């Protein structure tokens, strides 16, 4: 039986202590995260307690800089779940005039999805593509959201400014992520099956924290 030791940490220092432990364990594993990616990757590890993200979370060239630039331009953040929407820190984004939206519960989105035989996530990406201004797509649950974005790109209807692609699961999850690996779209993607709305929100929160 493994023995655990109680560590007394004051409430206000729990998060800092968690990140200290994360840093120590990464060092012990010989993992060095690029400096500009560190706040985001460590935030994801903090959210999941899963150190495999240090290896699988992938950033396109200049991704952090581009994401920061879009946030400073008051980009709209579009999520594929209300859970992701709830997990994103709106206060920090409000400083830059950003808003966070999710169309998954929209009645018209639901109607179109039923009529066309596609998912709500597919239609919600189409609706979001018509919003004005720069847009960051944050996908943590539905691979069909990524498939929808990629189809619009192929048809030359729309090209997203940035994609955070971390849907979780088994059906078309890995396939949908791979579609963006060699695309011109800036991205942060966790290739493989792992991800989730909590991971998607953690990435956005890591991006905004690293701007402070």
Summarize the SSE layout with pairings.
Layout: H1 14-28, H2 38-48, H3 53-56, E1 57-59, H4 63-72, E2 76-79, H5 82-87, H6 90-94, E3 99-102, H7 107-116, H8 120-129, E4 135-139, H9 143-154, E5 162-165, H10 173-178, E6 187-190, H11 197-209
Parallel strand pairs: 2-3, 2-4, 4-5, 5-6
Antiparallel strand pairs: 1-6
Helix pairs in contact: 1-2, 2-11, 7-8, 8-9
Can you describe this structure?
The protein contains 11 helices and 6 strands. It has 212 residues and is α/β, with parallel strands linked by helices. It has a single domain (11-209), classed as Cobalamin biosynthesis CobH/CbiC, precorrin-8X methylmutase (Rossmann fold), CATH 3.40.50.10230. Strand 5, helix 10 (173-178) and strand 6 (187-190) form a beta-alpha-beta unit. The radius of gyration is 18 Å and the shape is globular.
Highlighted features:
48% helix, Rossmann fold, six-stranded mixed beta sheet, 11 helices, 212 residues, alpha/beta
Helices and strands, in order, run as HHHEHEHHEHHEHEHEH
Helix share bin: 40-55%
- What is the CATH C-level name? Alpha Beta
Strand fraction: 5-15%
CATH topology tier name: Rossmann fold
Strand order of the largest sheet: 1-6-5-4-2-3
- What do the pLDDT scores average to? 93
Oligomer: single chain
Poorly predicted runs are none
Number of domains: 1
* Class from helix and strand fractions: alpha/beta
What kind of sheet is the major sheet? 6 strands, mixed
Globally, the shape reads globular
Number of strands: 6
Total of DSSP H or I helical runs spanning 4+ residues: 11
Rg, rounded, reads 18 Å
The separation of the N and C termini measures: 43 Å
């Amino acid at each position: 039986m493994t023995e655990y030791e109680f560590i007394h940490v004051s409430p206000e220092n729990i998060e800092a202590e968690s990140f200290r432990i994360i840093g120590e364990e990464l060092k012990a594993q010989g993992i060095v995260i690029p400096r500009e990616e560190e706040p985001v990757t460590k935030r994801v590890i903090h959210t999941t307690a899963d150190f495999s993200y240090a290896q699988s979370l992938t950033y396109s060239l200049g991704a952090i800089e581009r994401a920061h630039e879009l946030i400073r331009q008051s980009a709209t953040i579009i999520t594929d779940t209300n859970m992701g929407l709830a997990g994103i820190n709106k206060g920090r984004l409000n400083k830059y005039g950003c808003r966070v939206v999710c169309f998954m519960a929209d009645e018209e989105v639901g109607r179109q999805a039923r009529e066309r035989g596609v998912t709500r996530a597919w239609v919600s990406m189409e609706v979001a593509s018509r919003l004005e201004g720069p847009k960051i797509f944050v996908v943590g649950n539905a691979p069909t959201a990524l498939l929808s974005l990629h189809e619009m790109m192929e048809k030359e209807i729309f090209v997203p400014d940035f994609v955070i692609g971390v849907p979780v699961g088994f059906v078309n999850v890995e396939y949908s992520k791979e579609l963006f690996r060699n695309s011109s779209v800036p991205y942060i993607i966790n290739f493989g099956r792992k991800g989730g709305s909590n991971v998607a929100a953690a990435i956005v929160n890591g991006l905004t924290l690293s701007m402070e």
